[in-house]
Structures are given as structure tokens and as C-alpha cells.
Amino acid sequence: MKELDEIKEQSRKKIELVDEYVDNWLYVVENVSGKNEIIFIDCMCNSGIYKNNEKGTAVVVLEKFVKHAKEHPYKKYELYLNDYDKDKIIILKNVMDNIDRPANVLINYSNTDVNAYLHSLKRNKKFNNAFILIFVDSFNFGTVDINNFCSLLNVTYCEILFNFFTSDIRRNIHNEYAPNKMEKIKSSLSDFMSTDYKNDRECLNYFIQNLKKCRYIKYTFSIEFRNKNNQNLYYLVYATPNIEGLNKLKESIWKVFKGAPYHINKKNDKMLSLFDLDEMKEGVEEYYLTNYLPDVIKDCKLKFENNIFTYDEMLSFIMEETMLKSGQIIKYVIKPSLNDKTLIYVKKAGKSFKNSTYRWEKLDVCE
């Protein structure tokens, strides 16, 4: 049997986040009428298991599907799992076959190039009547054809999780010792950037702007993963047609990351970093929330300066541009700002904060 990969710390944390999000996502889509099929697509699924029997994404998602399928026997749960490496698919199938599942949980395996696989998904008519989450966990940048991926998003109503490997771009964009890789990265960047690469964040922003041009994508968010030296590895990018999906992602991030703006690997397996200690502290979520709030309010003032805006407009901005989740906005942003009179009602809808309209008092030039 092919030797299993050793799991990296950032992968372990990423799997934990995907696991939590899938669970939250399922609770939402199961209770929407009109669609009875729920699909998770892992385009680069690996073997489903790592050394020491640590579970991969496909396995933890199957376990969530089994749990929910037992509670919803009239719903259909399907996993579409693809990997270019045939041996990994053989291992994965053996692992998955040892997990008991009800008849309403189905698994489809493929062994093909990721770009050919993405192209084939566009022809699947059953996707028109299903809730779909697509996971693209690439091990580098340039393997996935961005234009091909976006063409799928133009015809498929779905949520996505995409591993945007910024560190690979940074290492190899000018690496003349690996000319093929360098040209592959430049070619992929040209799909969504008309300017030269400057830094990770700008590159990510161009990618997100490109996603938002896709027919069904309305909301995006990204969470950063860093190595033990506090250097960026990649961003896990989320995109969705529905703000409720984004809210469930935020809830998942706050549960897994305890409010922290990124994950950073430990210095070694036996020593916790300060960041990890922060994750363990009681009240750490309040610590992060308190630190975020001044910038959140300042950014909101700049965004809506001199304009009348609704709760929904503020919600969309805060959810996409800050770490806050929806349940924190009224309590920590709207109410305190109304109390200190920096935020004013334009049209008050009784006791409903969500149906009222607002404006910010004029910014102090020194603020």
C-alpha cells in the first residue's frame, strides 16, 4: 500500500474548520424546502486518512453526512470525491467502505485531473436541484485553472472553499531556477490580475474580486494560515450566494479559532506558541472582540460616511470585511454607537434594529 502522508498542523486546523462548517451548513440546508439533495464535492481529496490514522476532509464530512442522514431519512446526501492519484482513491475507498452509512448517503469516486473534473461538473444536471459545497484544496498555486473554475461558478449555485496558496506564488513568481513553475504561476495570475504581483493581500483581493464577478457569488471571506515563523502559508477563501452561509462560516471560525484572525503553527510538537496559549485562555473570545471593535466602528464610519444606510447594508459590510459575526453587530456596534450618539436613527422602526435606517455623525477630522 502507498505510504500515507503525514498531516501538517495547518491541515489539521483546516480540516477542523471544514468539519465544523459542514455541520453548521447542513443544519441550514436541511430545513429549506424544495431541494432534497445535499452534495459535498472534494476536487482534490487525497486518501482520506493520514499517518497515525488522523482523518482527512472526506472522512470527517462523511461522518457528518451519516449523522445528519439518520435524522433526515428523506434527504439524499452525496459525496463527490476526486484525486488525480489512483492509489489515493483506492486507499480512500477502503477507508470509506469501513464506515457504516445509511442508504441515503452515497459516494461517487473519480480519478482525473482537477481541471478536467471541474469541467465535467458543469454538465451534471442534478446539481440544478441540490445544495452544493465545493472544496478545492490545492497543494500549490497554478494547478487549478481559475477561468475554468469560475466558469463552473457561473452555472452552478453553490458555496465554495478554495485553498489560495499565496506562499507558493511568493516563492516562485520570480524563481528562475524553476522556469516551468514560474510561468505556470504567472499564467494563472493573468486570469484575474492585470498588474504585476506585489504582495499576498493584493493578489488575494484580485482573486476575490474575480470570484464576485461569477453569476451566483455575492459574499466572500478568507481566513489566513501561517507557519511557525508567523509567515503566510495560504488563505482559505469562502464564497457563497447567501449571507446565511457566510454567517455559518463566521460561527465556525469563532468556534475553531476562538476569535483569532488567523491560525499560526506551533514552534514544535511539544511546545505551545503564545498564540496557542491565547486559544486556551478563558475569555479569549472577549479579548479578541474588544480589540476588533474600535476598527470595526471606524471602518463602518468611513464606509457609510454622509450616507443613509440600512441594517442589511451594515451587516454585509461587517460580515465580509471584519471578523465579527452577525450576532455581535447589534449588541457591540449598533447599540453602543446609538447610546453615545455617534450613530443616529434616520427612520426608526419601533424596537426593530434590523428594520431601521441609520447614518453616522460626521467624522471628526482628527479621528
Topology:
Layout: H1 9-29, E1 37-42, H2 57-71, E2 76-82, H3 86-97, E3 105-110, H4 114-121, E4 130-136, H5 146-153, E5 159-164, H6 166-172, H7 179-189, H8 200-211, E6 219-226, E7 232-240, H9 243-257, E8 262-264, H10 274-280, H11 284-303, E9 309-310, H12 311-321, H13 329-339, E10 343-349, E11 352-360
Parallel strand pairs: 1-2, 1-4, 2-3, 4-5, 6-8
Antiparallel strand pairs: 5-7, 6-7, 9-11, 10-11
Helix pairs in contact: 1-2, 1-9, 4-5
Determine the strand fraction and express it as a percent band. 15-25%
Roughly what is the average pLDDT, rounded to an integer? 92
**CA radius of gyration:** 22 Å
Taking the alpha carbons of the first and last residues, their distance comes to 63 Å
Helix content: 40-55%
Biggest pleated sheet? 8 strands, mixed
Main-sheet strand order equals: 3-2-1-4-5-7-6-8
Q: What is the molecular shape?
A: globular
Task: Describe the structure in your own words.
The protein has 367 residues and is an alpha/beta fold. Helix content is 43%, strand content 19%. The protein has helices spanning 9-29, 57-71, 86-97, 114-121, 146-153, 166-172, 179-189, 200-211, 243-257, 274-280, 284-303, 311-321, 329-339, and strands at residues 37-42, 76-82, 105-110, 130-136, 159-164, 219-226, 232-240, 262-264, 309-310, 343-349, 352-360. The strands form 2 sheets. The protein has an 8-stranded mixed beta sheet with strand order 3-2-1-4-5-7-6-8, sandwiched between helices. Strands 9-11-10 form a 3-stranded antiparallel beta sheet. β4, α5 and β5 form a beta-alpha-beta unit. Residues 269-275 have low confidence and may be disordered.
